[in-house]
Amino acid sequence: MEDKPASKTELRYIAIEGVIGAGKTSLAKRIGERLSAKYVFEQFENNPFLEKFYLDRNRFAFQTQMFFLINRFKQQQELHQEDLFSEHLVCDYIFEKDRIFAYMNLSKDELNLYESIYPLLARSLRKPDLVIFLQSSIDRLVYNIKKRNRKVERAITKNYLEELSEAYNHYFFRYNSTPLLIVNSSDIDFVNSDNDFDELFKQIFREDRGFIEYFNPETRRII
């Protein structure tokens, strides 16, 4: 492996975001392996309401949302306490993403209650040194979700992915909390292609990378 440029020491905590099926966890694992980093993965499988939510959003939105909020907070709080001195840390979500789902799925009264709690939790948490937003087409998201075939995700509809993708785009094109790299990931395969991953890795650690940048790699047909 090549010597690490100085910029790697500045990116000790990297978080990866994107719509369901964008490849957040897969990319986090590959980056983590390259850096010998500590991983932090979202514990979605622990949410007892999630599968029910995909079947009936209105009925189970609030329970699902509050479980995620508390669970993510506890996980991020532990990260803040234990990993301040880790050389590298890679996480497959950011705490702030919780609000994207809240505003999509909660009723007005539920959202008011949520907003009375969220700021009290968020203000004490550590922010990433870089957020990577994987922006993907709906067809690629559907392809990835079907390919991994998780039971809890089988009821996800294309309409829900379209709605969620729009919400993510709206959020991240106004995002300014941390340095941000937006990646067009529709037609690259950073999981199975070393060339695709190496190209993305170089962009992440490019020494002249700006505060907010968009990476549109050369594409090839995946699906």
What's a quick, concise take on this entry?
Helix content is 47%, strand content 12%.
Shape: globular
Q: Give the oligomeric state of the chains in this entry, treating copies of one chain as homo and distinct chains as hetero.
A: single chain
- Taken as a percent bin, the fraction of beta residues is 5-15%
Taken together, the total number of domains comes to 1
The ordered H/E elements are EHEHHEHHEHHEHE
CATH topology: Rossmann fold
Task: List the defining traits of the structure above.
six-stranded parallel beta sheet; alpha/beta; 223 residues; 6 strands; disordered N terminus
Describe what this molecule looks like in 3D.
The protein is α/β, with parallel strands linked by helices and 223 residues long. It has one domain: P-loop containing nucleotide triphosphate hydrolases (Rossmann fold, 3-Layer(aba) Sandwich). It has eight helices and six strands; from the N terminus they run βαβααβααβααβαβ. Strands 2-3-1-4-5-6 form a six-stranded parallel sheet. The longest helix is centred in the N-terminal third of the chain and has 26 residues. It is globular, with a radius of gyration of 17 Å. The two termini are 31 Å apart.
